[in-house]
Structure formats: C-alpha cells, structure tokens
Design goal:
This protein has 349 residues and is of the alpha/beta class. The chain has 2 domains: 20-270, Spore Coat Polysaccharide Biosynthesis Protein SpsA, Chain A; 298-347, no CATH class. It is built from 10 helices and 13 strands. It has helices spanning 53-62, 79-85, 101-117, 134-147, 194-203, 217-227, 230-241, 244-249, 255-260, 281-291, and strands at residues 20-24, 70-75, 93-96, 121-126, 155-160, 171-174, 182-189, 206-216, 266-270, 301-302, 308-311, 325-330, 333-338. Helix 3 (101-117) packs across helix 6 (217-227) and helix 3 (101-117) packs across helix 7 (230-241). It is globular, with a radius of gyration of 20 Å.
C-alpha cells in the first residue's frame, strides 16, 4: 500500500498527457466545526496529517496528470488561499462568482476548459477524498480513460463497494460487474435506513457514490443540453460578459439530481481500494486508527468509557459518566456529540 504522504514519480505518459483533471474545492465549512467555518472550510485544514486536504488531493492527482492540466474549481473568495497552498498559475483556477451547487460548478468548469483547450477527456475529483492506494487508483484511471469516447456517449462514475451498512451515503444500484470492472447504472438510492443499508450490503450490486466523474467534454455538454440547454447558455454568457446575473440564472441544484438521475448514459467502475470521504470527525478518526495520522495535529485521546477527545490543549478536559461520545474542544468552539452523530452539526450552524 502506498500511503498518501509518500511521494510518487509522475506517471503521466502519452496516453493520458492531454487528459484534464478538475479538483472541486467548494464547501461551507460546517462538517468539521469548530475547526472549520465558512471562511476556512475543511479543504484548507490539515485534518489528517500535516498537509491540508486540498494539498493531499492535488499531490495525488499530480501523480497521474500533467501539472498544467490540473484545474481547481472553487469560490472566488478562496483564490489567494489556493495559490498559497499549491504551485499553480491563476490560469488554472476556475472561480465561481457565487456558490450555486455542483450543477453549475461542473458545467462551468467544463465549458471554461473546452473554450480554452478544445475537446478533452476530463475527470472530476472531489478535493476531500482519502485514497492511499495510489498505484491501484492510477491503474483504474487508465481503464476509464481508455474507455472514454464520443461514440460511447456516456458518463462514467466511480463506485465504492460498501464496507459496512452506512446510512450516511447515497447508493447506486448496478448490473453485474464485467471483467474490466465496469457495469451499467440501474438506479440511484437516497441515504437509506440502517435496515435498507444492510439489505444493499447483502445484495452485492450496490455501491457508494465515489463522487468522481469521467467523460469527453463534448459528450458532457451534450447530455446536459438534452435535459436543459439553458444551463450552458447562461454559463457561456457569463464567460463572455462576466455578468453574474447569468450565473445566478441557473438553478442551485446538485449535478446528481439535475443530470445523473435523469440520464441513461451512465456507466460505473468498481473502485478496488480504500476510500474515505473525510466527511465527518468520525471519518477522520477512522483514518487515524488505520494509518496513524494525527487529526489537526492532535492525537485523539480515548478514555475507558469509549469517548474520543480532540483538543488543542488550551483548557483541560475531563469526563465523568459520559460514554461513546466525541468531544472536540478548540479555542473556536466546543462540540459534544454522541459517537457517529457529528455529521448532524451541518444542520445546526
């Protein structure tokens, strides 16, 4: 296993030298409160280990793509933060004027790149994923980019085999997986009850949505236009004029709801590696237990009653009669949560 903090030689070759990576670096800063907040969302924090989440993702992606072919999509307010962290030019920043969910973010990024570079094969990658088995990850990217073509007229998703019955992820139902790891998407399922999640786990043909998406830029735009051509029209007008009004014309909706759940042109590739979306304090604790990486620079303390305490040490923390709780004590705030429930913080702040 290649750990995320181990450097790898860039493996970009003639096959993938023109392919494009877009790293999505949005976020509201709620999931890791009190460490994260609106002005400093989690991608700009060293949640696990010494490097920020965005730096880790960029270094992983740079192991496969040419550095000049990696673009970062984020809010315009984070441009200086990104250029401080990453050795990229401002030309590689795709900055949204407003936060308008992933439909606009994805389509705006693709249209900007196509206008600048012409038709390309593109992969979209969330910035907050932890994928330590990079060699295996890259080999699967090879298969995906080999498959992409305008003739197939399809979008390719990455599916993660569920390792346990989680009610925190959406699920994708598929046909049987072929010898190359591909299968067709049959349906999307909302975050299920625990009983339903157990049922999906037993069935064996349900995957967690890995959040990654791969396609030809022309096919991507064509599939979006089949659903609503005004989306592209609005964004192209914004690109040409800089008038934010056109960007605001698009609905604030996720790409999953707007496009993926409405098109039949979908394939999925089974991910054969460890994956963690770093979507909660508990997810970070899982990485800490598996790989020994400290969380935000502090090793969590676990007491005999099964509590996890994360603190910057500015005040002492003791517990009496508390069981199975997550306790985060920082200068910026205090979070006390039943273990496994900290994701609900996003509904409170």
């Amino acid at each position: 296993m290649t750990l995320p903090f181990q450097k790898q030689k860039n493996r970009c070759n003639m096959q993938n030298s023109n392919n494009i990576a877009i790293i999505m670096s949005g976020g509201s800063g709620k999931r890791f409160w009190p460490a994260s907040f609106k002005e400093k969302p989690k991608q700009f924090l060293p949640v696990v280990g010494k490097k920020t989440i965005l730096e880790r993702t960029y270094e992983r992606i740079k192991g496969y793509f040419k550095p000049e072919n990696i673009f970062i999509c984020s809010g315009i307010e984070f441009s200086s933060e990104i250029t401080k962290l990453l050795n990229i030019s401002k030309e590689q920043l795709i900055l949204e004027p407003i936060s308008n969910d992933t439909l606009s973010a994805f389509l705006y990024s693709v249209l900007k790149i196509r206008k600048k570079l012409g038709k390309r094969k593109i992969g979209i990658f969330p910035c907050d994923h932890f994928i330590p088995e990079e060699k295996l990850f890259f080999s699967q990217l090879d298969k995906i980019f080999e498959r992409i073509s305008d003739d197939k007229n399809e979008l390719i998703l990455k599916g993660i085999p569920p390792s346990y019955a989680s009610s925190l992820y959406g699920y994708i139902e598929t046909s049987p997986v072929d010898d190359n790891g591909f299968c067709t998407v049959k349906s999307f399922r909302e975050k299920p009850s625990r009983d339903k999640a157990e049922e999906y786990l037993r069935a064996g043909n349900y995957f967690w949505n890995g959040g990654m998406l791969f396609f030809s830029s022309d096919v991507f735009e064509s599939i979006c236009n089949e659903i609503d051509s005004s989306w592209s029209e609005n964004l192209l007008k914004y690109i040409d004029t800089g008038d934010v009004h056109y960007y605001e014309e698009n609905p604030s909706i996720s790409f999953d709801y707007a496009v993926l759940e409405k098109t039949e042109n979908l394939m999925l590739m089974k991910g054969e590696y460890y994956w963690n979306d770093i979507g909660s304090w508990e997810a970070a604790l899982e990485i800490h237990l598996k790989f020994g990486l400290d969380i935000l620079g502090f090793t969590p303390q676990k007491d005999s009653s099964g509590n996890w305490i994360i603190t910057d040490g500015h005040i002492p923390v003791n517990t009496i009669g508390i069981e199975n709780s997550l306790i985060v004590v920082l200068k910026s705030g205090i979070l006390i949560s039943k273990f496994g429930e900290s994701h609900r913080i996003k509904n409170l702040i």
